[in-house]
Automatic annotation (TrEMBL):
Signal peptide: none annotated. It comes from Faecalibacterium gallinarum. PANTHER family: 6-PHOSPHO-BETA-GLUCOSIDASE ASCB-RELATED, GLYCOSYL HYDROLASE. InterPro entries: GH (IPR017853), GH_1_N_CS (IPR033132), Glyco_hydro_1 (IPR001360), Glyco_hydro_1_AS (IPR018120). Keywords: Glycosidase, Hydrolase. This is Glycosyl hydrolase. Transmembrane segments: none annotated. The lineage of its organism: Bacteria, Bacillati, Bacillota, Clostridia, Eubacteriales. GO terms for cellular component: cytosol. One of its GO terms (biological process) is carbohydrate catabolic process. It comes from the Bacteria.
Amino acid sequence: MDLMKQMIFPAGFLWGASTSAFQVEGGYNEGGKGPATTDRGAGRPGIADNKVAADHYHHWKEDVDLMAELGLKVYRMGFSWSRIMPDASGNPNPEGLAFYDHLIDYLLEKGIEPLVTLYHFECPQALVDAFGGWLDRQMIDAYLRYAEICFTHFKGRVKRWVTVNEQLIATAAGIMNGNHEKDPQKNLQNIYQMSYHVSLAEHKAMALLRQIDPEAQIGPVCAIQVVYPHSSRAEDVLAAENAEELMEFYLLDLSVRGEYPPYVASYLKAHGLYPETQPEDAAVLKSSTPDFIGINYYFSICVKAKEGPVNYNQPPFWVSDAFDICDNPYLKTTEWMDKGIDPVGLRIGMRKVYNRCRLPMIVTENGMAYSETLGPDGCIHDPYRIEYLKEHIEQIGIMIAEGLPVFGYCPWSFVDVVSSHQGFAKRYGLVYVDRTETDPKQCARVKKDSFYWYQKVIAQNGLPE
């Protein structure tokens, strides 16, 4: 499309990039940091864990210099809860706060806005040990105490906060939240109970920020589930609708409206999955609304009407008697993107989110995974990543032209980060981190071709011709 060649974005559009604390920092036992659920990594020999990760803990200044060279307007980053609050006492760790002070002050010095995620998969192990983490309502107060410390300490410096990253994944993955229930039905009950507690904590945090720093903004980050029906058969279309309600909109409706969608409420009750609640919860859930929604998107999925028994041998959020996940024959797949690459799906999904929630949106994660090693010339040539980012940025340009309030784009990830399951075999970064699964070496930074391409995009506030 010729229009794309001239695509210029609105003034002030936030070009950024993303990481998360446990996937990038390392320094897992330095600076007074307490243990986290994620410190065990994938738990498989020969797979890198997060003890060193990309060693951002020791490379943070170099990394911010690279961000400035790239031209970033915003850095979507995360705080490690267990670095700021290492035990169950509720007392902050001065060394942890000092680390983030240095990082945020240097970002601001370089003209880069920090967009800070409070909770990105990493759960303090001390709280899991003390009372079971998110399974217990005590976690709500612990999270609120953590949020209060962060909101107060960084008031005026952090203008945008994320409550929780990808609650769908955060509550489903036992290696991240500490829930290791073996019985599949009880595991699902636990997931919905944890999710309910997360939503209560999220709303209390949003209300708290309005008291502490009314100028700041706050919102959730949702892993949007863009679901296509396998065919135009009514049963397949309904299965796709059901899947989106169960995997995406139950979370967004709780975040935005403070209530379950009717279908989800009836489904949970019918399946013995409705969480335990207390009478005062309704007022809490209705007490606040987000200022924006962060959108994480990598690929779409395809479903058909349910056939046969429930398959528990898949991610918990795909376990249902309301749909079956199936392949989409119209999409190109790769080694790590096995559901296919689907740029238009980003526009489909974000349009649905806006029509339902009517809030400004920022893309907080979107990226192309690839297994990469340095070439003979000491470089990484990644035309596949450039193509992926270009095609998705084009869709954002179309959304903006259509009137959707999309105010920023942060590809995943700024540097290569450790995957929670695949270590460093699976790389997303604009900057290569020179290490292997078993040898961290010096974690040297090498700018990929995609770094230089994205630098041009940012400099001209739009796609190159």
